[in-house]
Amino acid sequence: MSLAGPSSLVSLPGPQPGESYVETSISLSASAAGRVSGKSWKQLKSATVRSYIPEGLKTKKWEDRMEKTKKEQAIKKLQAELRDEKQAEITRRKEITLERKKAAEERQRLEEAKAKLTNIANVDGREKSGQVTPQSRSNQKDSSLTSQLSDSLKLVHRALLPTGPQSKTDGTFV
User: Fold this and answer.
1) Disordered: where is this region (predicted)?
2) pTM
3) Which of 26, 47, 157, 162 has its CA 20 to 30 A from that of 36?
């Protein structure tokens, strides 16, 4: 006998051997066409308790949660420090590069000025003849200025060269 459908068969207990089968009538309650509600054998329902707190927080102790929070905060603090150190290193390298570029530009400017002064001195032919004229005196002043410029260029070059363990022999720096 099938109650629910062709795929789910329910067998009712029949008479055992030696027993007779007696039908008992079940009284129908007053309902439409004698239909009985199936709720009598279903579980009673209760109100659903909803909580938006995750399961991990419901079961742990307060101290455990505080330890976890402290660890997370320490990790975040360490990450921030590392990030700041990395940014400081990047800015330090940029500043070094800018200083080198400025020094190279200054060196180039001084060399151009020196070349200009030597060209002016070489154009004047009186200096070669050994005669002392007012113009040759000015050329002597120019040559002394040129030597002063070259000396200052050397000082600037020495001041800008790094010293210590970070400098390499090939001119590159760490």
Assistant:
1) 1-20, 116-149
2) 0.34
3) 47
Buried b (16+ CB within 10 A) or exposed e, 41-61: eeeeeeeeeeeeeeeeeeeee
Mean pLDDT of 136-158: 72
DSSP per-residue letters across 131-153: ---HHHHHHHHHHHHHHHHHHHH
The span from the CA of 165 to the CA of 170, in Å, is 13
DSSP state letter for 40: G
Closest CA to 113 of 150, 141, 140: 150
153 with 107: CB under 8 angstroms?
Answer: yes
Owner of token pair 């009598």: 40
